[in-house]
Design goal:
CATH class: Alpha Beta
Order of helices and strands: EEHEEHEHHHHHHHE
CATH superfamily: Transposase IS200-like
Number of helices: 9
Shape: globular
Distance between the termini: 33 Å
CATH topology: Alpha-Beta Plaits
Length: about 240
């Protein structure tokens, strides 16, 4: 069965998750996280991707970014993955790959789901029981988005900036979003979109994207007809081709 093609859209936020092989650790010391974030900043700049949120967990990484071209996320992940794996292999005298073969991704409808996706990403350490509050975790974007800690790798999304014109009040409004943790249904939607590689958005957006790309919208239910098979190669499309 051919791989389901990625949905790659210029100027649409994209949620990416990359896991270690067999979910084994990818980060072993503080220096590892610091190196990864340094290379993330460089790759985002070189590949023209705006990073809005991230979390580096022990055995996986979440990124929320907006690319300027459809192929930019793949170039970013290739550059970042290559540099970090070379570093880890040299640092820990290991060989071979560090990451699973293929990262997962999901286009995000900004107006309805961007903030929910940011919360989902930055609450990962809380859900994992590692910290009681997202601000207690060093290796996520929450300290920048919610507490004002400088982070050169981040580019605020316009919806985040729209929370308030005053930076302090903006961070206060953002922190308020975390008081009721992301509800179970909302978290499930984010996970399901990633698992299936489908858009995270309302029915109209998701159906329009899949129809335009000639991709069957995968709902996660079993069963398909031969005509439902996805094309064997990725199809890319610019945002301007959608009229909403």
């Amino acid at each position: 069965m051919p791989r389901r093609p990625r949905i790659l859209l210029a100027d649409y936020p994209l949620h990416i998750v990359q896991r270690g092989i067999n979910r084994e650790p990818c980060f072993f010391a503080d220096e590892d996280y610091q190196c990864y974030l340094h290379w993330l900043e460089e790759a985002a700049r070189d590949c023209r991707c705006a990073i809005h949120a991230y979390v580096l967990m022990t055995n996986h990484v979440h990124l929320l970014l907006t690319p300027t071209t459809p192929g930019a996320p793949a170039r970013l992940m290739q550059s970042l993955g290559r540099r970090y794996v070379q570093y880890a292999n040299r640092q820990y005298r290991r060989t071979g790959s560090l990451w699973e073969g293929r990262y997962k991704s999901s286009v995000v409808q900004a107006e309805a789901y961007l903030m929910a996706c940011m919360r989902y990403i930055e609450l990962n350490p809380v859900r994992a029981g590692m910290v009681p509050d997202p601000g207690d975790y060093r290796w996520s974007s929450y300290r920048a988005n919610g507490l004002g800690q400088p982070d050169a790798s981040l580019t605020p999304h316009s919806l985040y900036l729209g929370l308030d014109a005053d930076a302090a009040l903006r961070r206060q409004a953002y922190r308020a979003l975390f008081r009721p943790q992301l509800d179970a249904e909302g978290a499930s939607e984010v996970r399901q979109a990633l698992k299936l590689g489908m858009p995270l958005g309302n029915e109209r957006l998701a159906d329009a994207i899949c129809t335009r790309l000639g991709i069957r919208r995968n709902s996660g239910k079993r069963g398909r007809t031969p005509s439902d098979e996805p094309p064997s190669r990725p199809v890319r499309i610019e945002q301007r081709e959608f009229g909403f």
